[in-house]
Design a protein that fits this description.
Elements lengths: L2 H9 L5 E7 L5 E6 L6 H20 L7 E5 L3 E7 L5 E7 L4 H19 L1
Length: 118
């Protein structure tokens, strides 16, 4: 197992986290780890479009750069963290997962993930 995959696996140790993945700037999967259902292309497209639109909006508002986005559905929440190399770290969790804990885990792992992708 690669070091990158181990970091993604660690996210799945947080209560109610279903999986984590890294996408490149085109929405293509770089690495993933899921406890149950595997990654779907629909998640990648949703995150890619959301990040592109969000980046455009924060530019227009003069609030660049975009750091993180959060999308919540009836039974799922997606947290997308923009990485230094235009990749995106995505954590997929059940709707009632602790967002503060997820954000803390993302912050703790972000620099290691960026170094591995450099």
């Amino acid at each position: 197992m690669t070091d990158l995959k181990r970091i993604l696996e660690n996210f799945c140790r947080v209560d109610l986290v279903r999986g984590a993945l890294i996408l490149d700037d085109q929405g293509l999967l770089i690495e993933e780890y899921f406890n149950d259902e595997p990654y779907s292309d629909a998640i990648g497209m949703l995150v890619l479009r959301s990040v592109q639109l969000g980046a455009q909006l924060v530019d227009e508002l003069g609030k660049s750069p975009l750091h993180q986005q959060y999308i919540e559905f009836a039974d799922c929440q997606i947290t997308a963290e923009q990485l230094a190399n235009d990749c995106v770290l995505v954590v997929v969790a059940r709707a009632n997962a602790n967002l503060g804990r997820l954000r803390l885990e993302i912050r703790k792992s972000k620099s290691a993930v960026e170094a591995m992708l450099a």
